[in-house]
Design a protein that fits this description.
Layout lengths: L1 H41 L10 H5 L1 H11 L4 H12 L2 E5 L2 E4 L2 H7 L7 E2 L1 H7 L11 H15 L1 H29 L4 H18 L14 H11 L1 H6 L1 H9 L2 H7 L3 H15 L14 H6 L12 H14 L2 H16 L1 H14 L9 H4 L3 H13 L9 E2 L5 E3 L2 E3 L4 E3 L2 H4 L3 H4 L36 H18 L9 H4 L3 E2 L1 E2 L1
Parallel strand pairs: 2-7
Antiparallel strand pairs: 1-2, 3-4, 4-7, 5-6, 8-9
The structure holds protoporphyrin IX containing FE.
The site of protoporphyrin IX containing FE has 23 residues, from helix 16, helix 17 and helix 23.
Length: 499
């Protein structure tokens, strides 16, 4: 009896002890979080900047809420914060968002030591690639290796390839339109952009345009991958884990859409060395340049998995960016009848018969077409949101306040491209004429759509070439009108790229 009583007492004693142990750990954690929140709000070096208090306390949850729970809405929330607090707002414990064109010019200027912010880029891209690499020296070498495939002079030479691809697309659209009267240009443009960029990367097109109605699994795979960008950013450990495992295991454990795309990339990359490119020089093929140790001083030929990573990033960078500009641009031009009519007039003078082939060399000289494309890029930048950079050693002075090294500064093309101090009171309107005023060449440097400086878009010449050919061909050869599409259908959100 005594034994039984003491055993009950002992059990009670132990469980009270266990509970109080848990309680103490819980309490300690609670006090720690409370003190940390207090520090972040009132004593952190960024405490003096207004913005989201939730973000200041916990950046990850803030981003998760605005970008995953409410898909792609953080950029618009940041816009609201700027409307309330002015050009600098706090959007994270150690992060500011700046909406000031002069600060943007400063941090992207030649010789700027601002680097890409590693955590962000490791979440949304592949490490060590032209886009995802954050080490300035390694990036400089990688960029030098790839530059010949994307330079303005190479693109000039490859323009016939782009012209022919779009001609093929038009023939296909013609045959679809003859039976159903309307064409879903979204998939058509994405197929075209993917076939063109795969030519530059692998020296051969994927052939996505050949698919009936342009339904190709790669396009879905790319789209799903972009949709997953903010989830990957929210759970960086999972994406790091998925990448560190062997590809066969990772594909089973993390059946990411990009894995499907990756398979094809691997097959193409592996077959690449035996390929011939006809009259085309090998130096205009990105993969060949990566495989050549002499491409740049300090270049190390990447092992197969890193080669695939780069190829995949290039394909991703060169697909939805350009095709979104085509889709949104087509819609805006058709919506603005005066723009539509003037564009047709200019093209009619430059290319007298509609059956005549459109040549990049001819249409890139057209002033109104050029103004329309710039306005499309300004109005709906394909990479609209935050591109974080890190304050270098020595700190950075912002509005008279010293920011410590390591502070993260974001800028966003969508906001910079509509800044009233540069673009005027009509900054929210689609008006190509702004690019034709006597002093409008001064505006070029404020167009943030391709970013600036050492990390400016590598595919800028290719993108321009595609946009010239697409808009010139469409508005010279066709009478276009919008079918069953409204402003609501064209509303976009920020998933790193527009979606
Ligand atoms: C309208 C079309 C395009 C737009 C608006 C655009 C925009 C951008 C922007 C804003 C960046 C900077 C990203 C960052 O800092 O994280 C970038 C980088 C890059 N883009 Fe584009 N892009 C377009 C088309 C293309 C095309 C066709 C390619 C071809 C593959 C391409 C390849 C790249 C690459 C490789 C980078 C990384 C450059 C570096 O960091 O050195 N882009 N692009």
């Amino acid at each position: 009896m005594r034994d039984a009583t003491s055993s009950v007492t002992m059990t009670l004693f132990l469980s009270i002890g266990y509970l109080s142990g848990n309680f103490i750990v819980g309490l300690a954690a609670f006090v720690f979080l409370l003190l940390r929140a207090f520090y972040r709000l009132y004593f952190h070096p960024l405490a003096r900047w207004n913005g989201s208090r939730i973000a200041a306390i916990d950046t990850a949850w803030y981003e998760f809420y605005w970008n995953v729970h409410l898909p792609g809405q953080l950029l618009f929330e940041i816009e609201k914060l700027h409307n309330i607090y002015g050009p600098v707002v706090r959007i994270g414990t150690n992060e500011l968002h700046v909406n000031d064109p002069s600060v943007y010019l400063d941090i992207t200027s030649v010789g700027s030591d601002f680097r890409k912010e590693p955590d962000f880029y490791h979440g949304i891209s592949l490490e060590g690639t032209s886009i995802g690499g954050t080490d300035p020296e390694k990036h400089r070498v990688r960029r030098q290796v790839l530059a010949p495939a994307f330079s303005a002079s190479t693109i000039q030479k490859l323009a016939p390839l782009v012209e022919n691809s779009f001609k093929k697309l038009c023939e296909k659209m013609d045959s679809i339109a003859s039976s159903v009267n309307a064409v879903n240009v979204k998939l058509a443009f994405k197929s075209f952009a993917l076939d063109v960029v795969s030519e530059i990367v692998f020296g051969q097109a994927f052939g996505v345009m050949e698919e009936p109605n342009f339904h190709h699994p790669y396009l879905d795979s790319l789209q799903d991958t972009i949709r997953g960008a903010w989830i990957a950013r929210a759970f960086p450990t999972l994406s790091t884990l998925s990448r560190s495992l062997p590809k066969s295991i990772s594909a089973v454990l993390f059946p990411l859409p990009i894995a499907q795309f990756s398979k094809v990339t691997i097959q193409l990359a592996d077959g690449n060395t035996q390929k011939t490119y006809g009259t085309r020089k090998k130096e205009s093929v990105a993969l060949e340049l990566l495989l050549d140790i002499d491409s740049a001083k300090g270049h190390i030929v990447p092992p197969p998995d890193k080669l695939h990573d780069e190829a995949m990033m290039l394909l991703t960078a060169g697909n939805d960016t350009t095709s979104n500009a085509m889709i949104l641009g087509l819609y805006e031009i058709c919506k603005h009848q005066d723009v539509h009519r003037r564009l047709e007039d200019e093209l009619r003078s430059a290319v007298p018969t509609p059956s005549q082939d459109i040549k990049y060399a001819t249409v890139k000289k057209l002033p109104y077409l050029t103004a329309v494309i710039k306005e499309v890029l300004r109005y709906a930048p394909s990479v609209p949101g935050r591109l974080p950079r890190v304050v270098p050693e020595g700190g950075y002075e912002l509005y008279g306040q010293q920011l410590p090294a390591g502070t993260i500064i974001h800028t966003s093309a969508y906001l910079l491209n509509r800044h009233p101090s540069i673009w005027g009171p009509d900054c929210k309107e689609f008006k190509p004429d702004r690019w034709l005023l006597p002093d409008s060449s001064t505006l070029d440097k404020y167009l943030a759509s391709f970013h600036r400086g050492a990390r400016q878009c590598l595919g800028i010449s290719l993108a321009w070439c595609e946009l010239y050919i697409v808009f010139a061909t469409l508005f010279r050869k066709y009478e276009i009108e919008v079918f069953n599409t409204s402003d609501a259908d064209m509303e976009w959100s920020d998933h790193l790229l527009l979606l």
